[in-house]
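Chain and conformation:
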Amino acid sequence: MTVHRFRLPVCGVAALLGATVLTGCQSGGDDAATSAATPSAATSSTARAASPAAPAATTTAPAAATSASAAAPTPGTVVDGATFGRRIEQATRSAKTVRVSMPAPDDPSQSLDADMVFVSPTRTDLSMAFPVENPQDEGFELRMVDGSLYFSNPDPEIDAQWLSADEGTRNPFAQTLVGMMQESARVAPAGQSALYAKSRVTAVGPERVAGTQTTRYRVAVPMTVVLDGVEKSYRSTGGLDPELEKELPRLRQQAKGQTLTQDVWVDAQHRPVQAEVATPDLGGPKTEPMTITYSRWGKPVTVERPPADQTQSVDTAWGSEVPPWLE
């Protein structure tokens, strides 16, 4: 494989992890939703459509609000953001599994896909496949099982098929990636529900997406709330990048009165089918709207730790140094 494929986009990975486009680039929720995950001896996660539902979310929506048969609101109706978020959160936990896809950050013509298992309110496991540039390249995969990361070895000088990292790693690159992924797992999908509660949610109307009848909603998220989440997430996982630290005051000033727009298409069970996000111009490079798709809700998914005899820790492989091709 081409080694630069290992330049993992942390916020993009975290976005997929939460099955929502903002989770990981923001964080929120009450103390219960953001508490640390309980360590487990499990070596894999398996979920099937016929499995019992995952443990109840921290906040449970009223029965009337979570009914799959609830009538869609009239176009133009402003709906309660907290109820809207809770319905998506509960539907996500009930399904237990989903595949989430977004354009690859360095090649929008290709797709970055993640199969996820919502094991508990504080644990999300995943298997993520990264696209390759050339057919002859080997694929690249990242897995997370109970907060520990495993990824295909990109270094030909290391005799192992997989590298691993957990919260005790000393490697600075791995520390950032593990911290962001674990933070996202702790708040997803409850963190997105909390964000919707601070947003203006408006019904757009019925639309058919990928053969599924959906209702489209437009979510206006205050950019100040998004920036608060970005700062909190980074500070909780090792601190802000110096450049971002310097830019924050300017960004906060420009963000006043602006919103991030997220259009969400949900099915009759209130599960997202598609989301499109448009970020306002805060003086940086212009960004195009990003589309994320959700599929295979409730389909069987198994995420396993790689065999121990094929795995080497990042600390043993790289020590405290960051390989030059990652800098």
Remarks:
- The two ends are 18 Å apart (CA to CA).
- Confidence is low (pLDDT under 50) at residues 1-42, 48-69.
- The first helix runs from residue 10 to 17.
- The chain has one domain: 3-36+44-326.
